[in-house]
Write a structure and sequence with these properties.
This protein is an all-alpha fold. Among the domains are: about 70 residues; about 35 residues. The protein is built from 5 helices and no strands. The radius of gyration is 47 Å and the shape is elongated.
Length: about 180
């Protein structure tokens, strides 16, 4: 009979040995080897546009616009002495600061700043003119006499009321109007 062959299914087969890893220094370098900072990540790569200046900023036109707006408000409120003169001075100062920015090249609205300066000066002049108007009206209605009467009356309420009645009668006589108290 036949002898069993070496390749028969009943014969145990020897398994080939699994492949072994190459010796320790692997043929590929380790990207995470210790560097100057042990245990840390590698440093970040440089920025792609390093060395370029930041983009230029837009013009700073806020002071010129503020000078113009304040000058317009000052001109409208110049009938009150404080509104015209004080706001006019503020508008002129801010306008000159805005003109300085234009000369340095930081702003480009020199005309707006100049308009704020001019209108600020006009508001100051109109406010000063209204001082003369208010002083004339004050003297015309006899307010000086009313103030003198109040100073003489002191704390006496009867005398204060008498001064108010005299002032009302003076205004009615001078301007041909009747002042009626509001309820």
């Amino acid at each position: 009979m036949t002898e069993p062959s070496e390749t028969s299914p009943q014969a145990p087969r020897a398994m080939p040995a699994p492949p072994t890893a190459p010796p320790y220094p692997y043929p590929y370098p380790n990207p995470y080897q210790a560097g100057p900072y042990p245990g840390a990540y590698p440093p970040a790569p440089p920025q792609p546009y390093a060395g370029y200046a930041p983009p230029p900023t837009g013009p700073r036109n806020g002071l010129g616009v503020a000078a113009l707006v304040i000058a317009i408000v000052a001109l409208v409120s110049s009938f009150s002495v404080a509104g015209g003169i004080i706001l006019g001075i503020v508008a002129v100062v801010i306008g000159f600061a805005a003109r300085g920015r234009v000369k340095r090249g930081e702003a480009n609205n020199g005309g707006v700043a100049l308009a704020g300066i001019i209108l600020g000066f006009v508001a100051i002049i109109v406010g000063l003119a209204f001082i003369a108007v208010w002083v004339g009206v004050f003297n015309e209605v006899g307010a000086g006499d009313y103030i003198d009467c109040l100073q003489k009356a002191g704390q006496d309420q009867g005398e204060v009321q008498k001064c108010a009645d005299q002032f009302r009668q003076s205004v009615e006589n001078r301007f041909s109007v009747t002042l009626t108290p509001t309820p």
